[in-house]
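**Fold in tokens:**
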Amino acid sequence: MPAIQREVRPSPHRLFQASIRDRRDATADTLSLLLATGGDRRIWPDEATRRNRYGTLAYPASDEISFASTTASNLSSAGFLAAAADLERFAALDAPYPVAFDHWFTDLRGRIARNFGNPEADIVLAPSGTDVELIAACLFAGLSERLLTNVLIAPDETGSGVPLAALGCHFADCSALGHVVQQGARLDGLAHQRILVRTVAIREATGEPRRQSEIDADAAAVVEAELKQGRDILLHILDTSKTGLTGVSRQAARQLSASAPGRVRVIVDACQLRCPPSTVKQDIADGFAVAITGSKFVAGPPFSGALMIPAALAEEFAERSRLPAGLSAYTAARDWPAAARPLAHLDFASEHNLGLGLRWSAALAHLDRYCEVPESRQALIKAEFARIVRSRVDAARDMLLHGDDAGDHQFSRAIVPLTIVERDGRFASFETCQKIHARMRESGNGPVCHMGQAVRLGSRGVLRIAASAADVVEASARMTAGQTADQALGDVAAKIDILFDKLSAVIRETKGV
């Protein structure tokens, strides 16, 4: 079978061109369909339910409750309107749309960079955090004349496809741009064993979080061993994991990078995007590449990623890095800054990814406003959210906040993992949590409620409740109007109460009580 084939899917570009020819306003159905294009099977809507594999919708659903920003969120009304406005502007243009697309994608990248105080940084857009990892692995492998060791932190708490992407392999059977590929095979143009992957754990096998000093020591040992083998290193900083933990301190990463200049490079996995914007700004200043998404904490629709590249590193990529031909199945020309496209030496199979641009337009409706909120207020609102959730957990009979998950990280990251207690007092397994998670998205026992997908921690599973940037923005506006943080989160607290009522009912049904 050829390495790349086209998957038969409705073409977003034909839909777009038809809307231009007919000069019609963008309809909700058309926009919803476009928002589900330019990504792999995970965001394709089911024909019957119109939900993707995350259980979310590509249109606003105000009657559903969502605290699932660790996984995926329904599209908000603000995000939908922002994406619709961009689509309608294109449909009304008399000028050739390729020119308009250039300006639009340039503006999207510029807004991302400015939100983090780095207007000079290069931004490469990508459909998902996993796609960002694949692009980064290819860029850094192309930069190095030696073999590359990609050091991942807790891949079991990032994404299931990340380990394959980190190797420069196809991580699914269909790429974001609709190409049928062989899962697990290396990208065309990438030599066998060009990239190796080593991992560092942030939890013990029992699920207990490891000490930061132990994580840093393990990372340093891996880096030292791989350097002795004559390999270059791409070291990850994890900020943040699915359960709110971090891995490899920035101080340790700076020291390791400085110990072997040009041999040890650093990338920050900030795909959850729960660190303060100023932290991302400092990471770029330190010369670190940063992977982000607009579809986790930012609460844009699923599948909007970006790789932020410091200006000096972007110059190195332009001078020396060569991308493997197989990457053209994942990235479109206008995902890259105009100056970088010819320097990438990649025969782009697609000029633009319209769905990706629209999803970033929706995400930026939240991110632009969130980054205007003072960071002290961001932290206050996140902490108040975590306090509200914890108080509900403390009052519940069938769930608890496990001691291993009760650190300060839950307050600063606004992620609260829930451990379910079985009838015999044991903790619910990962499989049981999966069943509960699915039942919460059904309409019985109250409205559809979205929580973070189940995560396996040792022998137990956890579900997650998390705040999003949209929650912070709304609460901040109310505080500006004179409310306290507690008052400003009143509506959020009411929704949390509804979610907990339904969760308790679902747990009882699962137990057969």
